[in-house]
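Researcher: Let's run the pair from yesterday's discussion. Sequence first, then tokens, for each.
Model: Starting with the first of the pair.
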Amino acid sequence: MAAVIPETEPFIRDAVKTKPALLRQDEAGVSLGSRMRYLVYAPFRAAVQRGTGVRTSASLGAASEETVQRATRIPALARGPFLIVLDGLDECDNKDEVQELVDGMLAFFSDNPFIPLRVFIASRVEQHIQSHLNVPGVCLDNLVDHCSDDDIATFLDVLFKNEMKRNPVIRAYILEYGEWPRPKQRRKLVQHIGGSFIFASTVFKFIMGSTAGGSSSATPMDRLPLALKMNPGLDGLYAQTLARSQHLPHFSHIISTIALLEAPLPTSGIAELLGICTYKVVNVLVNLQAIIQVPGTDDIPVTLFHTSLRDFLSSQRRSGRFFAHPREHVRLFLRCLQCELVHRQHGAGSLTNPSERKPAAAYALVYSVTHLNQGRSLFKSAELHPAIQLCRETLELCPGAPELIESLARVTLIHAGHTGSLLDLEEAVSLYREVLESRPSSDPDRLSSLNDLGHALQDRYQRTRSAADLEETISLHREALELRPSPHPDRSSSLNNLGCALRDRYQRTGTVADLEAAISLHREALELQPSYLYHEWSLRSLAIALHDRYELSHKLPYLQEAIFRCEELLTSHYPIGHQHRLKALNGLASLIQKRFAATRQAEDVTYIARLKAEAHQLTPFTNKT
């Protein structure tokens, strides 16, 4: 400050002379707030009053025009008030000292409202900071409200353009293949970065190989897909921050809910969805404001500061005791049913009129089916009975509502899978058929009804072996595929549905054309580069169909491709530790055994031994004896 405002220097020297302890870091008796008061605020105020004649105290009234004009005696004041910038206030370990610093600052400005000084604080507003800054005279601006995705996109555009000018490899690639990165890649990159400029810079350096040294042969084009899987390195911060609230009631449910929600909810919406009081949600979140944005008002959703927090909470290996288990989807589905029932009991208007919907009820209407699908394999039998009862009670309030019939059908079908009850399966088919008949070809929801009834009929075919069920399944999936022409993002799902049904018919009738068609459909599904889940399904279905084709023809190319697809499954979807890796290892070993029988390749013997050795290590002890 003395360098910028020389007029403050004598006052600073006097303060140090009077209180030498101000300069000793190990002096426990002098706090940061006191140092600011004696070394910054008091010298600045004295210099301003001596140099301008301006009275900074409110009790003495505002400065006259003449005294303001004399501000030029401190030349820098001619450009406006001075600014002190405090960055990273949340990173200070001593919270009491931070609070004292803020309180001292506020007291100074309260006593000197006209002083030409401003303080800009850049910080995550954690509770010990927010509670002191949330007062008149402080302007709080939430940067989360200013979505930085556009800024990140602009930042990356500049970096990529500059690198293109310098990098002949990129220029040659663009000349041959066109724009790079493509718009879709740019959007994915911006989404993955999640508004962090530091992470954006790190990702860009990785793509360009700045962190790889001279030994890497990968090009920027090779590294871009890998960059989309980069971890921003915040796991330590996440674990440390979450630990602050883990002892509080409902902590696990609240954090898991925030991680698994399909759309953010305000604190009252989270509380309603969980069936607890709002203050209990706030009590947990108030300590987590370094990583979770908790709005000051209840009409703004709770959001994550960075998307990687959701990735962290969704990985048991990374998050440990904070893991948001997929079984939480079951609980969320049940709570969605409960919220919808309660609000329908209060009258149809509360749901048909968006302005009258409570956040949790509005969320339940849209996303309950998503949580059902995510948790369908994780239900316990005891949880399905109340789910069916809630669906029936809600349907009684609104008889004939297709979306409610559909919800009951889905839960009933899952219950049939648990109990093996053919009666439940028959009811699910009947309910799905009722929904489909209510949705004409022009209805945008007809597609989902086609798929639902098709899956239910296919399940019934597996139980009863009814040819009529199988034929209707194929017909339904054909219609669904027609409603998803290329490049529909979910076309791969319809291709796989039809492919699996045709393979079932091949197994029933032996019609080779059905098997050939199934292989073709699964290949097309893979070529569409489906999502991670659909990619695994496509690979697995194609490998099975190719194996069937090899068994029929004994033509080696079918077996070779089946092996290739199984290897891809192991590499991309069933890494070490995955629950399905053992089954995949045994399946691949069986295929390699068949190739050895056909070709007598010596290397296959070693390959088989390696696969069986790993499979043996993964086999539970009870199965080895």
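Model: Moving on to the second of the pair.
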Amino acid sequence: MNRTFFLVLVLVLASLLVGCSENDSEPVSEFAGDWRHAGGDHSQAKYSPLDQINAENFADLEVAWRWQSADLRLPDGVGYATADYRAVPLVVNGIMYVNSNHGVIAAIDPATGEELWLFDPESYRYGSPIQTNIMIRGIEYWTDGDIERIFVATLGKQLLSLDVATGQPDPNFGEDGFIDLSQNLGRLEFESNFITAGAAPIAIGNSLIVGSKIFDYGMYNRSPPGHVRAYDTYTGELKWRFNTIPQDGEYGNETWENDSWRTAGNTNVWTFMSADEEAGIVYLPTSTPTNDYWGGMRLGENLFAEALVALDVETGERLWHFQTVHHGLWDYDIGSSPNLVDIVVDGEPIKAVAQVSKTAFTYVFDRITGESVWPIEERPVAPSTVPGERAHPTQPFPTKPAPFDRQGVTDDDLIDFTPEIAAEAREIANNFVLGPIFTPPIVRGENDKLATFVVPGPRWWREFPWCQCRS
């Protein structure tokens, strides 16, 4: 799909959702029409009570207006190749706020499509990150009841605070409205274009918490660390940094053997965070450490990689954590936001957090204490045969809920529509290692095998088998 058209389509549908009412003279209420955060709210509910558009009338919708992406209005020669558009427009008090993939922010009247203001942070002046196509996944709205701000982390490693009314940078925040996110990571001996913005930051109280997107492909053994930082929403001053790769003397440091914590990177939060505002807790879903499929240079469990980590929003203190994959070798990073849910189990109400993972497991915890709602068992898994590698001997298996996708692959899973097709499938599959979930990658050519089939697949097509090997 044409990316420009995709952005237009998203905005038109969003405008219809927030700009219509059963009586055209009656605007949708602030409560019903607002979408103040990427997930709707900080619990990541992704739910709207709007019900005017439904299955019966959807076919009757017509285009109300079109807004051209601000990326198409950049000066000649300054733009970069962009990925699919994945940001969610925000709607606050009847105004829509949207970002482009280059980080240009616009305020739009959702009833008419009129552009109210536009601000370009010119993040392209800092060069393109090494990832091929750029993408800004969203923006964050924040208010203390008086001041209102839009926060965005850009591809140029800028953290920006904009006045909602004017679209101008807040002069009291950082340096004329900007923070340099290439700083305050604890170490700087890495390629700066390996790190850029991930999902939208999250603002709780006066803490603006930001993750990052880090190049994590298999040809690199060192990358920037994915430490998570919090800045004061008013001043931009650094409040705290949580080291997702524990440093010397910190809890979990011993899980990085041979001082590998000094050079290992990634373990970042590239997807959306969640927060319990009443409890003052932010939940971090972390990614795989450097690199995705080889851990011989980072032996050990590698906390806090591929984990759900709960922090105090004011201090950054770790309250609890759960690692979903020990010593990751499959790129099973947590790619979805934690969902805060209120459930009843055996008659007892529980304020829970549910974390869906690429493993096809759903990990469910009491979101205050971190205690698992249902037992999670450490079960033996296959060892690695790669020289220098040491796969962790066990991995966590939730007993409930049941996996939502196939895990692992055997000959019984191969296509068998006809005897001839079944025979061909077995012949092809014989070139690969098949096995249960957490079967490690191999060295290409080992026992005449090309690679390991990994199911669920860890890449964008989650359900599709993925082949892993060491060349």
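Researcher: Give me one sentence on the second I can quote.
Model: Residues 78-86+118-336+370-398 form a domain with the Methanol Dehydrogenase; Chain A fold (CATH 2.140.10.10).
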